[in-house]
Input
Amino acid sequence: MAAQVLLEVGIALTALAVGGALAVRADQSVIPVYILVGILVGPNEPTSLGPVSLTLVDTHEFIDVFAELGVVFLLFFLGLEFSLERLVEGWDRLVGIGTLDFLVNFGLGVALGVAFGFSPVETLFVAGIVYISSSAVITKSLIERGWIANPEAEAILGTLVFEDILIAVYLAVLSAVALGGGGLGEAARSVAVAFGFLGGLTLLSWYATEQVERLFATDSDELFLLRVVGVTTLIAGAALALGVSEAVAAFFVGTAFGSTDHTHRIEQVVSPARDLFAAFFFLSIGLTTDLTLIADVAGLLAAAVVLTTAGKLVSGTAGGYLYGFSRRRALRVGVGLVPRGEFSLVIATLAASVGTGALAAEIPAFAVGYVLVMSIFGTLLMGYADSVTAYAGDSVVSSDE
Output
């Protein structure tokens, strides 16, 4: 058994390396390639190419763990680049762009659910799946494309933070409604715990800079790596156990490090671990994608892709104007919010656990297909953002550029 698992790990890593090399040579993002690699070598269709079997890697618990760590450390590095002081100072703009994003995109999800005849509870699932952008996919793309230092990155990251916090409330309420998990009183307690935990992390980020500085001071890169990875994973795991988004928790841990002198060293020492875990996250999306199931929800999928891409472009562009960006930079905010990913799959898993009606098969299949299409299309759209936004010109709304 151990030999088989080790062999599959080797196949997965080698396939990722080959696919990544091809993507780099073609000057494309590695993200869609990693997802396609997962589809090709995974246990779902297509399982063969003529007489050659393509079922080379099965889903294992360690892949799920590595994928979870990929989300955690992508968001950790997102927090590392994000100024908590700027976040607090610009809270009004953050709430404005986040609220606009929610009203437009969650509203489109509700419209889709109603149009395709889903029940109210099923419609809530569809709306959540199409509403929330992928923090993991977008963060990886921002780093790859060098957008992380651009002015529009602040608006994109602010929207992601708003979405990730709001989704914690949404999941608590949805679980209570769909699973009967203690009713709305239990949901309210879950929300209170989530905000208490995140509030504690915020205070840590704000007031404990000197303590964090001393705690992680060491001459050994090995010990430094173990401390950063260990503590970040521990806090993310504690958050998940309390029903709080591990991604949001990792983000705030990153902001705590971002105000110390350890930032540059983290980027040098921890980045390789982040990239390894992130590759497994995107691989895991491909491994769970069954193309035969997606065909059954093709109409819903096509409508959702068109409508929600337009929705993110509209809400993101309008949000960019709230930040005072030029037309081109404002449109880039919309482009940057198109990819969907990990949270949509979390919602799909919750739907499947209900196990009745469309929640048992149709909505989970839609979610997997939607994430596959939007993660690939979204990263490609970011890659060609200069061409997409070229018509907007360089009219400046304020002096941010």
